[in-house]
């Protein structure tokens, strides 16, 4: 009976440890590691999730923004995110015309996320 209780306690401790590891801002997924970054945009904070797999950017999502609709919002900036992925980072990627502040904030947020991957 004592051995059974010890086994249950060990199992509970192990589960708590596993759950605690999964509570961070940055997490691993089946497709890679996800890192979050944020920066101040034109309309407020922009928060991104950058997914890395074997040292390469495979996806970028804007998960929070308050930018101007049809100019700097997440849907309007999809092309910029694709350019960052294709370039493997923000270096050499041109800003989106008409959305300079938002573009620069996205660059800063992505760079913030990438700094956590190092």
Q: How would you describe what is shown here?
A:
It contains three helices and four strands; from the N terminus they run αββββαα. By secondary structure, it is α+β, with helices and mostly antiparallel strands. The chain has a single domain, classed as Enolase-like, domain 1. It has a four-stranded antiparallel β-sheet with strand order 1-2-3-4. About 8% of the residues have low confidence.
The percentage helix is 40-55%
Gross geometry = globular
Q: Compute the average pLDDT.
A: 84
Distance between the termini: 48 Å
CATH C-level category: Alpha Beta
Reported for the largest beta sheet, the result is: 4 strands, antiparallel
Structural class: alpha+beta
Strand content: 25-35%
Radius of gyration: 19 Å
Count of all domains: 1
Note poorly predicted spans: 17-25
Strand tally is: 4
User: If helices are DSSP runs of H or I spanning 4 or more residues, what is the number of helices?
Assistant: 3
Main-sheet strand order equals: 1-2-3-4
List SSEs in N-to-C order.
Answer: HEEEEHH
CATH architecture: 2-Layer Sandwich
CATH fold title: Enolase-like, domain 1
């Amino acid at each position: 009976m004592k051995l059974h209780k010890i086994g249950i306690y060990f199992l509970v401790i192990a589960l708590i440890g596993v759950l605690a590891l999964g509570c961070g801002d940055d997490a691993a997924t089946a497709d890679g590691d996800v890192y979050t970054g944020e920066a101040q945009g034109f309309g407020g904070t922009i928060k991104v999730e950058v997914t890395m797999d074997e040292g390469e950017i495979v996806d970028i999502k804007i998960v929070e923004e308050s930018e101007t609709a049809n100019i700097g919002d997440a849907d309007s900036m999809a092309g910029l995110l694709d350019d960052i992925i294709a370039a493997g980072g923000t270096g050499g990627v041109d800003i989106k015309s008409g959305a300079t502040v938002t573009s620069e904030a996205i660059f800063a947020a992505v760079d913030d996320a990438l700094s956590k991957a190092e």
